[in-house]
Amino acid sequence: MINMKKDETKKKITKATIELLKEKGYKGTTTREIAEQAGVNELTVFRHFGNKEGIIQAIVKTTSFSLEIFDKSIEWELEKDLTNFGYLLLKDFDNNRDMISIALKDPLIFSQAHEEIIKKINDTKKILKEYFEEMQKKGSIKDLDCCTQAEIFLSTYWGYFMYKLNFGDKALHADYQDMIKNSIKTFVKGVSLH
């Protein structure tokens, strides 16, 4: 019961921090404001996280990417697998939109958050690279640099997500589904042996 209350308090503090950071930025947000927004005492913030940077670290650590699911759902059919991967990738970017947005506003202040996001992107790239390597062994795709192909694939989705994050839907021709469908067809045509 005590742990549940502790977890609930931490969630309230991290949620309040995200809201304030989006509104005021890192320098404009104080631990006092975070405490007020979360409905807790400022000492509670310090007890749970130490300082503002501690809250940021906790938020980043709870940022999750569901790409482990990709490993379990691979069917070794290029178009189907990459479509699934594209959906998971955009879903993860969207689920972590606030943290990504905050971290990219000031990479020096959010260096730890920035590093954690880079680590998660590199982990994602590794999963995709290994998938492409296996597809090469199976004779399903051309003999291309798998790491570069993974980066091209990720860059396409990262670019789409950033475009949407910065400019909204009004600036985009394709919604998520159309973007995934069309980009996968183009990508598969470029790497496939058939």
Automatic annotation (TrEMBL):
Signal peptide coordinates: none
Xref: Pfam families: TetR_N
PROSITE patterns from the UniProt entry: HTH_TETR_2 (PS50977)
Entry superkingdom: Bacteria
DNA-binding region: 30-49
UniProt xrefs under SUPFAM superfamilies: Homeodomain-like, Tetracyclin repressor-like, C-terminal domain
One GO MF term attached to the UniProt entry: DNA binding
UniProt keyword list: DNA-binding, Repressor
Domain HTH tetR-type: 7-67
Protein name: Putative DNA-binding transcriptional regulator
Organism listed in the record: Priestia megaterium Q3
